[in-house]
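Researcher: Structure prediction, please.
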Amino acid sequence: MSHYLQRLSVLHFRNHREASLELGPQVNCITGPNGTGKTNILDAVHYLGLCKSYFEPQDSHNILHGEEFLLIKGELATEDGIDHLACSVRKGARKIFKRNSKEYERLSDHVGRVPVVMITPYDGQLVLEGSDVRRRFLDGLIAQFDRSYLEALVRYNRALAQRNLLLKQMVLNGRPDRGIVEPWDEQLIVQGEAVYAVRKAFMHELMPLLANHYKGITSGPEQVELSYRSELSERTYRELLNEHWLRDVAAQHTTGGVHKDDLVFTLDGHPLKRAGSQGQQKTYLIAMKLAQFDLTAHRAGIRPILLLDDIFDKIDPQRMRHLLKLLGSGSFGQVIITDTDAGRLRNALDGLPLETRFFTLDHIIPEPVNVIDPHHEAQQRAVAETGA
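Model: Predicted structure follows.
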């Protein structure tokens, strides 16, 4: 089953003052020079799926410079009809997300209704940056189809924040007392062990899919591994908290737990960050994102919207062939692709049995245009203005 966005509009979002696109159910191509906001259109779709930006965690930073608010709206075609989605952010106020004009009490209640998978050159940070980046990736991935996991994670983080606050206050008062934090310890134990169990099971499912896609892209001899590293794999959370008590008091925060977990990427038994070339790292990350797509589609029962950000400019023809083969096989539902070169994108997609729409972003505010070219591809010029 596939859900797809048939209309997307943004107001005061990133560098777009206003933009509106009528999207097709299969392949949508957004082209234009660098700096015109192609990636930001993909990020707007991500907002409608996960209630947040893929790139900028602080919502207010996504508001167009000089404005007070942003608004992202989408019309989602489902088997039950059209869902009207709207996400608004105003400086100094809380984020508001509505479905069919009804505001969500909790943003987490929406997560999973519009699953999305983003593949972008920025994914390299998963290899190069710290463990917090990889944990956010893992949590966001699982949360799209497992609401109970998201709820456990929210409760865990709330308990962690309270425990850390008490630890700091106790040290400042000069009276460390284990009994004061015990109620929050119990919350960490219950929620943390639930989070650990889901992450562990999920990684067990993801690994073979990653290996299969990596092999499909390269046809090479390399062996890839993706493992989940957690202190809970060797002891219970209660034992961990007992062992870390003196360390926690000295540090004035909780030094052990699932908030310290990490993902380990390896190639032929060696860390990918050190042993893998740039090409191998890109291949690994693309394979992992495709594995994410497969698993999300299976678990959620809905094929995610696939967002491909400028990757045809960043990968070699060998890697491109695997993606195009998957596109042509109908493995995906709605796909939105950005590229600086419309001609290259047309050549890459030529011959695939897919409905393809092209949109052009530039620095001018044009009127919407609907043109059918000799190849019967729908072309539209997006209404877009870039900010300073």
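Model: Residues 364-388 have pLDDT under 50 and may be disordered.
Researcher: Thanks, that helps.
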